[in-house]
Design brief:
Radius of gyration: 25 Å
Order of helices and strands: HHHHEHEHEEEEEEEHHEHEHEEE
Oligomer: single chain
Strand order of the largest sheet: 3-6-2-1-14-13
Strand content: 15-25%
Largest sheet: 6 strands, mixed
Length: 349
């Protein structure tokens, strides 16, 4: 009997040991998967599916890993808990610089420019609410991703009733068979750009041609000629990450420019994702970063801001940039929050 009891005890111990090892292995596999997302940019894989998509959720996943570190403590697995904690802390240190920033010093030649961005979700946003926000903020430039020419015209007419005058242009890319233009049709994602007439904008698309609506305006109504562009690169859909990357690469010409510029729109990319990191390392500065607004997210508007991500941005040239104002606003009929900012641009006057 004693031999049988000892044999049963040993068998039970072996089973318990294998269960613990299996739990540990599964835990470490999950941790490795999360770490690959958190460190995707550092190891150069965040331009590929699924890391391209999941890296947008890096702040939320980082919090999840921090909470995950508590699990091994229940079974006194202190080494594994410490490993999990270090994984989260290293990611946090790498994530803070592009999310939280401070305004730089601005030269005496800086001029103030108000910019607003409203992704209107295929003309679905309430134009009355957008008009109210524009009247209140009085920006010089309004970028409207997914706004058709008809929508932009209605908004401009509504603003003109109260004396707020804007000129506008719309880029509606064609889709279909390039070899047979007669079969081509207007794509579903146009972009409109509103500019105050005193800035004397000269609209064009040659500098920022893309798959979705993207529009440039040369601003001639100041001492220095500068550019503003309403942009909308494609999203990082599975199987479409190359278009996502190319859409951002087309904007690098601005970042390399020595003249003042503004890029405003729906970039379909967060500051923690590869394409945006390449732009900010090429000479572009994100106004939200200079304002230190890491928790002001723009999409989706149905979630609380701390659960969302920021894919709508305003980028400007140079590092000597000061955000005079930066805020997000809720608009009915769209899944994006509007973005309103005023920025002091060096070398503008």
């Amino acid at each position: 009997m004693k031999t049988e009891n000892l044999s049963g005890a040993e068998s039970g111990n072996r089973t318990g040991t294998w269960k613990r090892r299996l739990r540990t292995a599964l835990y470490l596999c999950v941790l490795a998967g999360l770490a690959s997302v958190l460190w995707a940019g550092s190891i150069g894989i965040d331009l590929f599916t699924p890391w391209a998509q999941l890296s947008a959720l890096r702040p939320q996943l980082n919090v999840l890993v921090l909470l995950f570190a508590v699990v091994p403590l229940w079974r006194r697995r202190f080494v594994i808990s410490a490993l999990t904690l270090v994984t989260a802390l290293v990611s946090t240190i790498g994530m803070l610089p592009p999310t939280w920033g401070t305004s730089g010093s601005v030269s005496s030649g800086a001029g103030s420019v108000g910019i607003a961005v409203f992704n209107v979700s295929a003309d679905g946003a309430d134009p009355a609410e957008i008009a109210d926000e524009v009247r209140s903020a009085d920006p010089e430039v309004v970028s409207l991703p997914e706004a058709s020419r008809d929508y932009a015209e209605k908004l401009v007419d509504r603003l003109a009733r109260t004396g707020d005058k804007y000129v506008y242009e719309t880029d509606a890319p064609l889709v279909g068979d390039v070899e047979h233009p007669i079969r081509r049709r207007i794509g579903p994602y146009p972009t409109s750009l509103l500019v105050k007439p005193e800035l004397r904008p000269e609209f064009g698309t040659e500098k920022v041609a893309g798959l979705l609506g993207t529009l440039d305006a040369k601003i001639r109504g100041s001492a220095v000629t500068w550019h503003v562009a309403a942009v909308h690169p494609p999203p990082p859909l599975p199987g479409g990450t190359s278009e996502w990357r190319v859409g951002h690469d087309l904007l690098k010409e601005y970042c390399d420019s020595e003249k003042p510029f503004v890029l405003a729109g729906d970039f379909n990319s967060t500051l923690n994702q590869g394409p945006m990191r390449e732009l900010t390392s090429s000479g572009c500065t994100d106004v939200g970063r200079t304002a230190g607004t890491g928790l002001s997210t723009t999409w989706p508007s149905s979630l609380p801001e701390f659960l969302g991500i920021t894919i709508d941005h305003v980028l400007v040239g140079g590092s000597e940039v000061s955000a005079v104002d930066y805020r997000t606003v809720d608009i009915s009929g769209t899944d994006h929050r509007g973005l309103i900012t005023e920025v002091a641009l060096p070398r503008l006057n």
